Amino acid sequence: MWQHYLMDDHLDKAPLQTADGQKSTSRLNDISPKSTERFVENSELTVHEAVKFMWTSNLPVAEDWFQRNLEQDPRCAIHYAEAGFLKAVILGDNQSKEAVIERLDNAEMIAEKFVKKWETEGNKVLETKGTMLSPNEAMKIIKAAQNLRLALVVKAEATLFKSGNQILKNKLSLGSMNFRRAWKIYQKANKIAEAQKWVEKQYFSPEEIKGLQTQIEGDINNFIQFGEGVICLGLSMAPKTMSKLANIIIGLDGDQSRGLKILYDCINSKKGVRVPLALMFVLFWLLIYIPEFIPGKHERYREAHDLIRFALHYLPQSPYFYWLESYMNQRQGNLERALKLLNRVIAYSGRTGIDENPGRLSFERGWVLFLCQDWESARQCFEISIEKASDTPFTHLLLGVSYCMLNELQLAEDTLESIASYNKESSSVEEKWIHKRASSYLGRRWFQLFPFEISYVTDYLQGLKYDWLESSYDYLTSIDIEDSEEKDEIVISMLLQGAILRHLGRLREAVLILEAGIKLEQDVKKEIWVVPHIYYELGIVYVKSRDWTTSSAYIRKAKSFKRSYEFKASLSFKLNATLELILQEENKEFKK
């Protein structure tokens, strides 16, 4: 469904193709970094200029401006929370994340104060039918209705963001409740808007109505587009229990196509206050939420590229879109470009006083260096990240493996033991496999396989470039592992070699090494996950050669594998997607 939308409709209406190409007349375009603080203290600064400033030139200074004005304008309260979110994206520490929640709570309270201030006069717009008003009375009611709607949409957005955080923390009941609350507040604002339009038509000419379309009116519409788009798209990604409940209580289904269309309407306003967040949300969906193995990857990357170019046109040198561009490049195997963009964002963080070595970005940089097999530089980044922000099992796992590759084996053992002893009961599903990997690595001999295993199970292998694949294959074949008694590790090495050969297009060699691995299936005692993955790889090799019968047989063999193993959920998704692809291709050939 969504691929059809992206290819046949969505891309035709991509914002880059409809951009007017005009330069922004904002005073921000002419401001040098040295004059930043003086300018932002200027009382003539608008909310729109401060938003652009926040996303481009200097986050801390814009953040301070929003904080000083949040009691005067509910938009400043929600943008102050937005500034906290952007800072958390860079830093990644718990303190900055907690600050975002505190600011959202505060924005919700401030918005509620404005709702109470304007609801008596603003709600009069709902009672005007059948009454006669003077033009002055009508104008007063319209302005009150606008202010009420603005307060309502800010309150709705704060509630919606809180809901998202609660759902991510697996507090589904509370998150679902706030999700529904946010939707109802948006609908209340829409109801008032309909009544406001009726009053405008009754008492004012088309020219006068046009004069009423203030910047606030545009902001309200932008907030609503963003909120409704996030809700529709978000519901399509939510747990089934939550989406069913939303359908029962508010009659709303998750709808990817509808959500994307609304978000693109928001984006195509070009300079609205919610354009940056709408862009970021769609990019998160394209690049992070949808797994790499889902068909349509090249179309998604093309779409993401267009969105990033659009973002950097209207928000020049935005570090947040450079960061997303870096992420896209690392997924595509453009590691040098990814590293260059990350260094640019880290330099921005230091230049603006956020942090010279921000924890979250240090992890991102370490991961790219890990993929580049620069173990010493990766180690330094992971150590900074653990100290400042990303003290997570995955960061420790990568650090432990980096120590292994640097032959600092005691440090590696200590690090991996610390992960293996984590409290598994409180761990997420994602973290549990990391605990198992750490425990597994402690009992294994051939640590040289570990980095390639991690690249494989995180689905990064398929995006890496020819030179990387070729040098990695040469490295793996140079490890003298065939004559060892560690059959599990021999089969893992065969899986990795076969997968790399497949990506290199050397399909016959891939079949030989993978089939050799299958012959050792009964000898695999601990690393059970490797067996169904070998069947999957063989199935994909035969998909590449368009042998649908053989590929289907191997995929079904993997699906019917009875023993419990790691990474089963993600592999099952891939197996089902591959069977669907095989069926589609067989039908195409049958119809010829």
UniProtKB/TrEMBL annotation:
**UniProt-listed SMART domains:** TPR (SM00028)
Highest taxon of the lineage: Eukaryota
Q: InterPro entries, per this entry? A: IML2/TPR_39, TPR-like_helical_dom_sf, TPR_rpt
Pfam families annotated for this entry? Iml2-TPR_39 (PF10300)
Q: Where is coiled-coil annotated?
A: none
- PANTHER family recorded: TETRATRICOPEPTIDE REPEAT PROTEIN 39 FAMILY MEMBER (PTHR31859), TETRATRICOPEPTIDE REPEAT PROTEIN 39C (PTHR31859:SF1)
Q: What is this protein called?
A: Tetratricopeptide repeat protein
Give the organism the record lists: Blepharisma stoltei
